Amino acid sequence: MVEIKRGHRYFRTHRGNVTETATVVDLREDIVGIPHVHFSLAFEEAAIGYIDAGNRVLALPSFVAAYHPRA
Q1: Over the stretch 4-57, which tens digit does the pLDDT of each residue have?
Q2: Which of 20, 31, 43, 64 has its CA 20 to 30 A from that of 50?
Q3: CA angle 45, 37, 66 (to 5 degrees)
Q4: What pLDDT band is residue 1 in, cutting at 50, 70 and 90?
Q5: Are 25 and 58 in contact (CB under 8 A)?
Q6: Using an 8 Å Cβ cutoff, are 42 and 20 in contact?
Q7: How far apart are CA 46 and CA 51, in angstroms?
Q8: What's the pLDDT at 70?
Q9: Over 90: is that where the pLDDT of 2 sits?
Q10: Domain spans of the chain?
Q11: 3-class SS string, 10-69
Q12: What pLDDT was estimated at residue 33?
C-alpha cells in the first residue's frame, strides 16, 4: 500500500491531458474508525490553466485506488 502523508501530492490523468492533483491536508478516522484522507483538489491543462476545485474527503482505500504519486 502507498504511504499517504500530509502535504504530499498525488495525481491522476484524464482524457485531454487534464491532470488532477490531490494535496493531502489531513488524515483522520471518522467516528467509527474508518481512516479518511482530507485533500485539496486542483485540475490543470495547458489550454485552460489551473482550476482550484476546493476540498474533498475520501476513505483511505478509495483515495489510494484513485490517486498515485508522480513517477
Answers
A1: 999 999 999 888 789 999 999 999 999 999 999 999 999 998 888 999 999 999
A2: 64
A3: 50
A4: low
A5: no
A6: yes
A7: 11
A8: 77
A9: no
A10: 9-66
A11: EEEEEHHHEEEEEEEEEEEECCCCCEEEEEEEEEEECCCEEEEEEEEEEEHHHHHHHCEC
A12: 95
Q: What is the dihedral of CA 49, 52, 40, 13, to 10 degrees?
A: -30
Quick one: which of 31, 18, 26, 35 has its CA closest to 55? 26
Residue written as cell 504511504? 3
Burial, 65: exposed, middle or buried (Cβ in 10 Å; 0-12, 13-18, 19+)?
exposed
Which residue shows C-alpha cell 476545485?
53
